[in-house]
Design goal:
It is a single chain. The protein is about 5% helix and about 55% strand. The protein is mainly beta. The chain has one domain: Maltoporin, Chain A (Beta Barrel), CATH 2.40.170. The protein has a 22-stranded antiparallel beta barrel. Strands 3-8-9-6-7 form a 5-stranded mixed β-sheet.
Length: about 750
């Protein structure tokens, strides 16, 4: 399968406009097969593997130490399952944590969410998390995914510890990388972590995805799913098992094909995904991991992601696009392709009895070719249909390195993260009446057809030192410091919004401190506390102003305080926390009401406070009860206005069963009410709000039912059948997303959907 890879570029400076040509080709770069990239990285990475031999060093809790990582091997049907509050909990925290955490395990991902789900749909069960899938579970990008009210570009998403995201605003495309069947675990960390937590937006938290591991035995597992919206999903998984001739190496390879009409009219999606992971022991103390994930999506993307009430009433709740070629809502003018890949080679080695090395050399890429924003009246004809072709094409190269030294006094962590992203972006007007070529004036192509064209580059370096000091057998105190530095370069012959040339770069850096503590009251009960600073490099849109030198972009900063407790037994598993966040430099871009020029503004900030809790109680006979909840109070400091699109809280209730081959769950998630304001409001001035809207809270239920059985004396080793029903009670809900003028626009939640699956293990 082809995958994008950057070609070398000239030094930053003035660049030529992309050649004026039919954009059916777009900007395409030379490509290499995605699954070959790890081999290229391996050649570089083996030079650091070494052949050091050492014995494993046992580590006394609660210090987090380089002990063996739990293997995330999916088993279709488990024999002699032992159920408890710990094994059945949809979300739970570990006893040695130093900030609020919800771990969502492989069993929940495999058996209690839709087979089409993405990480947003999985994380949605956790306290403090809210998300909206307007196309169906995992059948389009999640909207309004928040953690404690922090928006998508204000928290991290990592994959096996590697941060990834868009270079312009650090947001994420939930359906563009890792489907549920290729995720082994999702951990929602609600907080900035210690100094060793790397990433652009640590203060909002981290959604940490872990890859699925290969099984110890050979297996071939085909899975077929069918459900609502004429959705089909075929997933093939091959496990090599341990290969003795290769010293115990293991391979897992998966391929997935997903095709769906989605909930929205004339808005189909087609996705192809491939995943490969190989783990190779080297000697007795070193392990090398090679991983590659490739994703290719084509879909029709409604220009009206959100709808007015009048549109909902006249066109229907599920309106997306139509087939009228004279309409700007025609599917023929609104479509995208997205191509992504992520590869790494990782080396983990015990250098001595006390020293451990972990390193990942990685690359990831995102290529978006979008036809969008149709209009009537082009340069050639007032009746021709026109639109825009938007290209967003970036590749990142980076490395994460950590060394740890563990002894009876504690654990020292020294490490760093470096990443370089090269991003080409442009948007050009098209004339569909002339076959989709550039919009023209005076009978020939004109550079004014470009809405913007630019190259954006970002270099990020983070270095950290952290020491988990074992004060007593029960008490661990961890101070840490991190140095964060980022430089953004922009080379724009036509800058976005202003359409003026801009060649600029800015650097931001800051040392960040953290202090965490964990105290074990008993062997199954701990308390913890955290005080930590957060930092976020400014969004690229802060350069979309006439004189950026006069409006120096400021990084967002936070001071985070939180305290919590964790209690874990087989019968009862619970944790709770409270938090307070002082948020500085809230960015805002608006238009001058007289000149209509863009205005860059910086609000003084906000305060965010609240609490969260989650618990699972094992009743017995394979039955557990689950509940979680959160309260969120997020307001701008000067105006006391509630922050927009921030729910007032969340809650979840659940009933789970596992026994005698049968498994299932009935869960319900609540998302609290939220507000939005007119787009040009000033968060520091309450009187600047001249239009506002409010959505009340809503509940949605989900049902999972399944049965599996192991077989003997057959080619088929086991089978599993499963039914997933989302929005079980068919609640019709629409959530306010924005206000344009005085007109509110809504995101419409899909009605009831179902997905049936059959898996075989051969």
């Amino acid at each position: 399968m082809p995958t994008p890879i950057s070609t070398p570029r000239t030094a930053l400076g003035k660049m030529d406009l992309p050649a004026l040509h039919p954009l059916t080709a777009g900007i395409r770069r030379r490509r290499l097969p995605a699954l070959l990239l790890p081999a290229m990285l391996m050649a570089t990475g083996f030079c650091i593997a070494g052949a050091a031999a050492a014995t494993d060093t046992p580590v006394t809790a609660p210090v987090t130490a380089p002990v063996a990582t739990k293997q995330l091997e999916e088993v279709e049907v488990r024999a002699n399952t032992t159920t408890s509050a710990i094994t059945q909990a949809p979300t739970q925290a570990e006893l040695n944590i130093t900030q609020p955490q919800s771990v969502i395990g492989l069993d929940y991902i495999s058996n209690h969410v839709a087979p089409t789900a993405d990480y947003a749909a999985i994380a949605g069960i956790a306290p403090g998390v809210s998300t909206i899938g307007v196309s169906g579970p995992g059948l389009g990008e999640a909207k309004q995914m928040t953690i404690r009210g922090f928006n998508d570009n204000q928290y991290n998403v990592t994959y096996d510890g590697i941060p990834f995201g868009d270079t312009n605003d650090f947001s994420h495309h939930t359906s563009s990388y890792f489907p549920a069947k290729m995720i082994g675990q999702v951990t929602v960390d609600r907080g900035p972590g210690g100094a060793s937590q790397i990433g652009q937006a640590t203060f909002g938290g981290t959604v940490a995805l872990r890859s699925k591991d290969a099984r110890d035995e050979f297996s071939f597992i085909p899975t077929v799913s069918y459900g609502s919206y004429d959705t089909t999903l075929t997933h093939l998984e091959l496990n090599s098992g341990r290969i003795d001739k290769l010293g115990g190496g293991k391979l897992i390879f998966s391929a997935q094909y997903n095709d769906t009409d989605t909930y929205r009219t004339n808005s189909p999606m087609n996705r192809k995904t491939a995943y490969l992971k190989y783990v190779q022991p080297v000697g007795s103390s070193t392990e090398v991991t090679v991983l590659s994930n490739y994703n290719y999506i084509t879909f029709n993307n409604p220009d009206k992601t959100d709808l007015t009430q009048q549109q909902i009433d006249t066109l229907g709740r599920n309106f997306g696009l139509n087939r009228d070629r004279t309409s700007t809502d025609c599917y023929c003018y609104n479509y995208q392709t997205k191509e992504t890949d992520l590869e790494y080679i990782g080396v983990s080695s015990a250098l001595s009895d006390t020293w451990q090395l972990d390193n990942k050399l990685y690359t990831y890429a995102y290529h978006n070719d979008s036809h969008e924003s149709p209009y009537v009246g082009t340069g050639a004809s007032k009746t021709n249909l026109g639109g825009f072709n938007k290209i967003n094409d970036y590749r990142a190269w980076g490395d994460t390195l950590e060394t740890t030294r563990t002894d009876e006094h504690g654990q020292l962590r020294l490490g760093g993260w470096y990443e370089y992203i090269d991003n080409t972006r442009y948007s050009v007007a098209l004339d569909y009446g002339l076959g989709g070529i550039h919009d023209v004036k005076k009978g020939k192509p004109d550079s004014s057809a470009y809405k913007y064209t630019m190259i954006d580059r970002l270099r990020t370096t983070q270095l950290y030192a952290e020491y988990a000091w074992r004060v007593t057998d029960a008490f661990t105190l961890t101070p840490g410091v991190k140095y964060d530095r980022a430089t953004r370069y922009i080379s724009a012959p036509i800058n976005q919004t202003t359409k003026l040339p801009l060649y600029d770069h800015q650097t931001w850096d800051k040392p960040l401190g953290s202090l965490t503590a964990n105290y074990m009251l008993t062997s199954d009960w701990s308390v913890y506390g955290q005080a930590a600073q957060g930092f976020l490099t400014p969004n690229l849109n802060q350069f979309y102003v006439p004189n950026p030198a006069e409006n120096k972009a400021k990084p967002q900063k936070t001071m985070n305080y939180q305290f919590g407790t964790v209690y874990k037994t087989d019968r009862f598993n619970a944790d709770a926390d409270v938090f307070y966040i002082d948020y500085q430099n809230f960015p805002l871009t608006a238009l001058d009401p007289v000149t209509h020029d863009p205005i860059f503004a910086m609000a003084k900030g906000a305060t965010m406070r609240g609490g969260e809790a989650e618990a699972t109680y094992y009743v017995g006979e394979g039955v557990s009860l689950y509940a979680n909840g959160s309260l969120i109070d997020a307001k701008f400091k000067n105006s006391n206005l509630r922050m927009p699109t921030v729910p007032s809280g969340t809650a979840a209730l659940g009933f789970l069963y596992d026994g005698n081959g049968f498994f299932g769950s009935l869960t319900e998630k609540y998302v609290g009410g939220q507000r939005v304001y007119n787009g040009d409001f000033n968060p520091d001035v309450a009187s600047s709000v001249n239009a506002s809207g409010h959505t009340t809270g809503w509940w949605q239920a989900a049902l999972s039912l399944g049965y599996g059985q192991n077989l003997t004396g057959s080619v088929i080793k086991s089978y599993k059948i499963r039914l997933q029903v989302d929005n079980l009670l068919d609640e019709h809900k629409q959530v306010i997303d924005s206000i344009k003028g005085t007109t509110p626009y809504y995101l419409v939640l899909p009605g009831r959907s179902w997905f049936a699956s059959v898996s075989l293990a051969l």
